[in-house]
């Protein structure tokens, strides 16, 4: 399914949109949840981005996540399995006008967890790089 790529100015509601979605997700994961993060460009204040809330979830067991597929579908997600990254569970919401993406990793997948968090933290600490990155995204879109 082709996605419409639109890069927009930062929206002050992004953190609230993340929190609202988090409240839908938490009851599904229950005790399997280790941590949940707002990642990606919408997690970085004043960064131009596609208006898609990226969520990274760390769990104890991916097999438990797989058993919750129907519950994620019930709250509007497509459950796409690994979707190109070994050891990940990828879910998306919103069809061609995607609004949310979830990346789920098991707690021992330090590589993928670290790289997602490092990207966010680097751009937060280097506003000049984030600004150039936002300009590049706008130009490419």
Protein described:
- The chain is an alpha+beta fold and 141 residues long.
- 40% of the residues lie in helices and 21% in strands.
- The protein is built from five helices and five strands.
- It has a five-stranded mixed β-sheet, sandwiched between helices.
- Strand 4 (88-93) and strand 5 form a beta hairpin.
- The longest helix is centred in the first third of the chain and has 16 residues, at 14-29.
- It is globular, with a radius of gyration of 15 Å.
Task: Supply database-style keywords.
5-stranded mixed sheet, 5 helices, alpha+beta, 5 strands
Taken in chain order, the helices and strands follow as: HEEHHEEEHH
First-last Cα distance: 17 Å
Strands of the biggest beta sheet: in what spatial order? Answer: 1-2-5-4-3
- Give the % helix: 40-55%
> Uncertain segments of ≥5 residues (pLDDT<50)?
none
The whole-angstrom Rg is: 15 Å
The shape, in one word, is globular
* Total number of helices: 5
Strand-residue fraction?
A: 15-25%
By helix and strand content, what is the structural category?
alpha+beta
Question: What is the number of E strands?
Answer: 5
Mean pLDDT: 95
Sheet of most strands = 5 strands, mixed
What is shown here, in short?
With 141 residues, this protein is α+β, with helices and mostly antiparallel strands.
Topology record:
Blueprint lengths: L13 H16 L3 E7 L13 E7 L2 H5 L2 H6 L2 E3 L8 E6 L6 E7 L3 H16 L1 H14 L1
